[in-house]
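Protein record
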Amino acid sequence: MNAISNIWKHPKTSAAGLLIAVVTAGGVLSQQGVTLGGAGTGTVVTLVSALASAFLGLLAKDPGGPTSEPVSGGASQQAKLGVWALIALLLPLPFMSACSGTTVAQDIVNWTPALQSAVATVDTTGALLAPADTPLFAAATVGFDAASNLLTAQAKAYLANPSASALAQLQNQIVILGQQVNAALLQAGRIVDKASQQHALAAIQAVGTVVSALLALVQSISSKAAVAQMAVRSTIKMAAVRPYLNEMQTATVVAGHYGEPIALARMQMAQAEQDAMVVGF
């Protein structure tokens, strides 16, 4: 039987086995003094081990009799969700774990066609809105073309020459475009017509999804001081625009770009967003 298929058909057993392995490995790593970094007052290793133990407790079930009962549909779905949650914990987003500045630079450039496509969609979205809403949408997104073109050019320049000055320009431009997107989301939220508002928010969020991925990439190769400065310049915070975002839309784009399941991308994006908000975005 195919190993992957077997895991999916028997999620509870597979999850339990994986969790036991994590707890065991965590104990060995702790004994060897391996921490994988800090997490609150403890270490990443102890945090992962504790969470794995907690999942094991949730999966545990008292024997109900001599005959084993099949796992119900609801229980099966919960177990599968537990598998995805653990995978999300252990496997951060590709743009959260790049190996080198060159790898990150290439990933940034790889995202730029999606950015250009999303901006092109914004340019045509005005035709889908009610006539009274078109001017507001146009005014809110007027800077997208210039800012995205400059960001694309800077990304390619950084890939060709990953210098400190090129990185500084990239840091500045991603903040500028990110703030334009956030401001546009707030403006689109004022549109009264529900159909117009839905079209406007979806188009702007498509741009914002790519910008969020690029922001995480740029953060991953920036110093703490530089990230702090970027956060200070980001005056419209993520929390302000959070009510206007569709998590599934974002996860679908990210999952398609990296070739991973949507459920996994959704959990990982939530963690990436939380990490960004913690440092001030």
Notes: The beta strands are 38-39, 42-43. The first strand starts at residue 38 and ends at 39. The chain has two domains: 3-90, 95-278. The two ends are 47 Å apart (CA to CA).
